[in-house]
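sry for the spam today, last one i promise. struct tokens for design, 171 residues
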């Protein structure tokens, strides 16, 4: 299943809010306290938060299309937009999500390839990301794609402090 990519612009804000909330809820709602989760969704994927991120010159969102349908999205950060490292040689893959109906169709691999190409074009030597330590399926997928754990950091869903593994892939 071949996909195409489009950089998200401000005029696509409503679509970004919708797919962000849908994919994050599908992935994590069942594993979190409903009140904490609702607070997180309302803050992390608010119009203000996502508009600010779209406007940040060091953060870039991409929609992933199959034919004319948006089937996923991802976000990359460099320099001070990164959530942790803020190193000039690295590109953070902060979000990568595919709608449930399109999972298992190699879309994630095509997304990773786009991230690799983007990082190389920007002169980066590695990609890094954070993934919830309880998300064993995602961790295995990243490991299968040559990402290695190099640390941890806290991640909050509402008041619930969780732990993300930090994983890196050298380019």
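last one done:
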């Amino acid at each position: 299943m071949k996909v195409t990519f489009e950089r998200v612009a401000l005029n696509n804000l409503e679509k970004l809010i919708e797919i962000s909330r849908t994919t994050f809820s599908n992935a994590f709602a069942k594993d979190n306290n409903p009140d904490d989760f609702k607070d997180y969704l309302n803050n992390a994927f608010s119009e203000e938060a996502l508009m600010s991120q779209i406007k940040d010159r060091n953060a870039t969102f991409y929609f992933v299309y199959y034919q004319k349908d948006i089937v996923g999205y991802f976000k990359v950060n460099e320099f001070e937009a990164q959530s942790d490292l803020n190193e000039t040689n690295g590109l953070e893959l902060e979000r990568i999500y595919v709608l449930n109906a399109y999972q298992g169709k190699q879309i994630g691999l095509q997304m990773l390839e786009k991230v690799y190409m983007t990082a190389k074009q920007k002169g980066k030597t590695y990609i890094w990301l954070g993934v919830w330590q309880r998300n064993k399926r995602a961790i295995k997928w990243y490991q299968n794609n040559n990402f290695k754990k190099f640390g941890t950091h806290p991640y909050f869903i509402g008041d619930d402090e969780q732990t993300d593994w930090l994983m890196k892939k050298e380019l």
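Helices lie at 13-28, 34-44, 47-55, 107-121, 136-144. ok im logging off now
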